[in-house]
Amino acid sequence: MAETSTTTSFINGSSSIASLATDHLFTILLLLPMDSILYFAMTCKKFRYLATSDILWESVCRRDWGNTAVDALKSSFHDDEQRRLIPWITLYKQVSRVDSVCCYKLAEPDPDLILPVPRASHSLNFVSGCLVLFGGGYEGGRDLDDTWAVYIGNNSQNMLKWQKIQTGTPSGRFGHTCVVIENYLVLFGGINERGDRHSDTWLGQVSLHENLGISLSWQLLDVGSTSPPPRGAHAACCISSRKMVIHGGIGLNGVRLDDTWIIELSENRCYGTWHKIVSHPSPPARSGHSLTCISETQTILFGGRGLGYEVLNDIWVLHVTEGYSKWVQIFYELQNIPAGVSLPRVGHSATSIIGGRLLIHGGEDSLRHRKDDFWVLDISHISLEKMHPTRLNSKRMLANKWRRLKPEGYKPGCRSFHRACVDDSGRYLYVFGGMVDGLLQPAEPVGLRFDGELFLVELVLQL
Question: Where is the F-box domain (predicted)?
Fold first, then answer.
């Protein structure tokens, strides 16, 4: 590596490691976790320059966060000089230790503009630099079939101007899932206002035009004769550049499901193939839970409402590699977690943020008390072997992986069945809608209402 050749003079000595070429040392360091690299830097002054260099730590950030997140983070700085003043090692440490978020209300200042109506159980995705909102449930159990989009670009705190997009398809629904695979949207299932469950799979593509106008085209994906049974209130996420996984939900006759399916898209995105995953053990039946991919092979399932209508707080990890899929439950004790009694929930959002962690927001408990809290769950460095339920230290090991974040700035209300998505940097989270506490009439007790608010959640880095 040419960029590191200037450090060769720092690597002299008689030990075998000191005799390695700088490029080889660089490669070895990139295989180590953060703490090990820092320990290596402390062993000898001769190695300190390489082990703390900006070139190495940008590579570590790209290794752990991905190129898309690093490039987006770099573009979020006001100028190159600001970026150079903040070493990558500092950024890495701050991301790994983030303990607070700052919320901003993204209000539209022009009252004459048409905005999306309040809703819940809709979909919200960040794709091609845009937020895309589709469907959801509305007052009276009605479904919505409208599509809205807004261009974000690199300015996360723009005053946003929604555009209503005429697509005609898919049909109105709520409780569906919609995930981003590369620059495509993949939508599955949902429930309409008559209570019918869907099992259709749609592929959507967003197009940006010179005047920042946005268009979205949907096509019904050909999946052949095999597909999951109809459902809504299930969970889904993208697990590779061509695959989506779904789990659970409410099927026909209101029965909660416990099955897991994966669809693989063809290279030309013209068709897809569904297959069912069989794993023992596997998560019990549930609805209103979350499924979030945190790495190329690991997907986390959390919470939801079980067969007995109980609200759950269990964690499962789906490990998927070529030709191999396995569910593993990881255990923890609520009393080991500060304010742990608030963890069980349904209708929450769980989003993968920068650093391969899970940001969980809102939801409701078994008494239908809605929440406004933010939690980070970090199991990115726990191996499947350590998560095995027969290991005695598994509960203790996970206890410090939960962290409640302190909210700053704007105070959004408690909500459930909202939707959230993160931008390309993994640092900015957008939240829209949901069910919130409210007054049905001024003289009546607290009731329930649909929300149409959009707000931004920023991970606070103490730079």
Answer: 14-60
Q: Please state the φ and ψ torsions of residue 48, each to the nearest 5 degrees.
A: -65, -40
Let me know: does 118 contact 449? Beta carbons within 8 Å: yes
Q: Give the CATH number, domain containing residue 365.
A: 2.120.10.80
pTM exceeds 0.85 for this model: yes
Q: What's the pLDDT tens digit per position in 378-413?
A: 876 555 544 444 443 444 455 568 889 999 999 999
Q: How far apart are CA 423 and CA 198, in angstroms?
A: 29
Domain end marker among 96, 117, 132 = 96
Q: Are 89 and 116 members of one domain?
A: no
Domain of residue 455, residue span: 100-459
Hey, what are 289's tokens? 């839970």
* pLDDT one-digit tens code per residue, 107-159: 666 677 788 999 999 999 999 999 999 999 998 889 999 999 998 876 655 66
Together in a domain, 89 and 125: no
Pairing of strands 406-409, 100-105: parallel
- Measure the N-to-C terminal CA separation of the chain; round to a whole number of Å: 29
Distance CA 232, CA 210 (A): 37
Strand ranges for 322-416 from DSSP E = 324-330, 349-353, 357-361, 374-377, 402-404, 406-409, 415-416
Do 137 and 109 belong together in one domain? yes
Residue 338: cis peptide before it, omega within 30 degrees of 0: no
Dihedral sign for Cα atoms in the order 130, 135, 136, 140? positive
Buried b (16+ CB within 10 A) or exposed e, 423-456: bbbbbbbbbbbbbbbeeeeeeeeeeeebbebbbb
Same domain, 269 and 293: yes
Distance, CA of 50 to CA of 433 (rounded, Å): 48
Domains of the chain: total: 2
